[in-house]
């Protein structure tokens, strides 16, 4: 890599790191948050989903802004907004204020991931791009997995509030690197953003998720449930319909005419819905079931992190050489097997025999999956639209996680006891396997570069 490329890669990794880290670091802090601020399972779901709603809805807008007005500008806006929101969350004195601050944080986080990935795709090409995406994937996905460990240490040794303040460190580092790089953005005159579409998308998702979260408390027949559910669905359908004719759509539907793009996004929905469900259920159950302290609950996922660090960049390189289809098939199915291993968990709890084998198997599957998945989706779209392509894929991943978490009470049967833990493991496995089958049936490997001829003409 050239010096500039290394700097770009570090900026992309750090810029995305905080969004992925915060998305999971909160999971291990949820019991401590509800103990201090109250609210029980419903508040825990909203602390997660308030972030995911604005992240999933506005990430599409951020992708359009990134392509139209510049990746560096969007990245700076996201970093500063995320830092301010993190400080507000750490200072929250009520669950309502914390949930609102989490929504603001999600909105800022929406500006981080698309612009970060777009920086990579615009500065790397060919095999180097696949390797760079593999490194980015290893680091950012490791942030998702190591988040519970960091959160657990902070919750046990200090306060859950520090789990959010820690975001300030990578944010400051990224802003310094951006200043040192003296990057310049190219702005396209006449570009505009579909803010009406953004509002429709956000309100549509918000209404439906509100109904899914509150339904176990009120029932489907309650007007407070079916009215926002119906209104949310109508608004979201209106958002999709609007994207067909608006001049500057935030969700360009023509992207979904590309086979690897739409198939990859369907697989993404299954896989990331499962990851969000599993990540939340494991760290919360280990604290509320066997009664592990937050630090040990966070340490449970450490083997996945280690495996991701060692294998993900290699998987990205292998995918660039042999194509993504094999890895996108085998990886999710392997994770599904790992999820089923959680069914060995009993009331006589043993981390080493009941949880660790699952973490190892899921770590291998995750490392094989994520970089090839990202490369397949972004590689199917021309570089000029890499920002919006990345945004769409990340929106699909976040919305899938949003829906999975919103359905948590339905999946576990109202309480996260051992039976609920087992039910969540089965649903996780089914979603993972569905992602692998989707990839096998739909993904096509790009044509390989012809091998250079071994024959030579003597002169």
UniProtKB/TrEMBL annotation:
**Protein name from the UniProt record:** MFS transporter
Native organism: Microbacterium helvum
One Pfam entry for this protein is MFS_1
UniProt entry tagged with the keyword Membrane: yes
Keyword field: Membrane, Transmembrane, Transmembrane helix
Per the record, the major location class is membrane
Q: Looking at the record's lineage, which domain of life comes first?
A: Bacteria
Location(s) in or outside the cell: Cell membrane
Q: Which residues cross the membrane?
A: 7-30, 50-66, 73-93, 99-120, 132-154, 160-183, 195-213, 225-241, 262-286, 292-313, 325-345, 351-374, 395-416, 422-443
Q: Where is the Major facilitator superfamily (MFS) profile domain?
A: 8-447
Q: Does the keyword Transit peptide apply?
A: no
Q: How does it sit in the membrane?
A: Multi-pass membrane protein
């Amino acid at each position: 890599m050239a010096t500039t490329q290394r700097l770009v890669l570090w900026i992309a990794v750090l810029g995305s790191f905080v969004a992925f880290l915060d998305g999971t670091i909160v999971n291990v802090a949820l019991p401590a948050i509800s103990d201090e601020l109250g609210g029980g399972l419903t508040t825990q779901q909203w602390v997660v989903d308030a972030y995911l709603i604005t992240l999933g809805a506005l990430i599409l807008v951020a992708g359009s802004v990134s392509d139209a007005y510049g990746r560096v500008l969007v990245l700076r806006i996201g970093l500063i907004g995320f830092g301010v929101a993190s400080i507000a969350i750490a200072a929250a004195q009520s669950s309502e204020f914390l949930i609102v601050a989490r929504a603001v944080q999600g909105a800022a986080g929406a500006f981080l991931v698309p612009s970060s990935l777009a920086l990579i795709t615009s500065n790397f090409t060919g095999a180097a791009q696949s390797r760079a995406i593999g490194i980015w994937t290893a680091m950012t996905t490791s942030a998702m997995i190591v988040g519970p460990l960091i959160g657990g240490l902070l919750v046990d040794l200090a306060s859950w509030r520090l789990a959010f303040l820690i975001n300030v460190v990578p944010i400051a580092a990224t802003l310094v690197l951006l200043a040192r790089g003296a990057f310049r953005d190219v702005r396209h005159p006449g570009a505009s953003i579909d803010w009406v579409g953004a509002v429709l998308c956000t309100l549509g998702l918000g209404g439906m998720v509100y109904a899914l979260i509150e339904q176990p408390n009120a029932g489907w027949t309650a007007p407070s449930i079916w009215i926002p559910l119906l209104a949310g669905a109508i608004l979201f359908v209106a958002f999709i319909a609007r994207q067909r004719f608006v001049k500057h759509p935030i969700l360009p539907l023509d992207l979904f005419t590309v086979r690897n793009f739409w198939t990859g996004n369907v697989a993404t929905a299954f896989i990331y819905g499962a990851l969000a469900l599993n990540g939340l259920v494991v760290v919360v159950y280990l604290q509320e079931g066997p009664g592990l302290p937050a630090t040990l609950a966070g340490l449970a996922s450490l083997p996945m992190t280690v495996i991701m660090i060692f294998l993900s960049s290699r998987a990205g390189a292998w995918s660039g050489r042999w194509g993504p289809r094999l890895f996108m098939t085998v990886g999710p199915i392997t994770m599904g097997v790992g999820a089923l291993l959680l069914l060995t968990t009993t009331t006589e709890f043993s981390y080493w025999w009941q949880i660790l084998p699952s973490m190892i198997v899921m770590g291998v599957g995750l490392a094989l999956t994520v970089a090839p998945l990202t490369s397949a989706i972004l590689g199917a779209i021309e570089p000029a639209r890499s920002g919006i392509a990345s945004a769409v894929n990340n929106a699909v991943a976040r919305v899938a996680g949003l829906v999975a978490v919103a359905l948590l009470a339905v999946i576990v049967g109202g309480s996260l006891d051992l039976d609920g833990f087992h039910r969540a493991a089965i649903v996780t496995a089914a979603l993972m396997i569905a992602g692998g089958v989707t990839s096998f049936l739909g993904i096509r490997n790009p044509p390989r570069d012809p091998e250079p001829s071994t024959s030579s003409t003597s002169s």
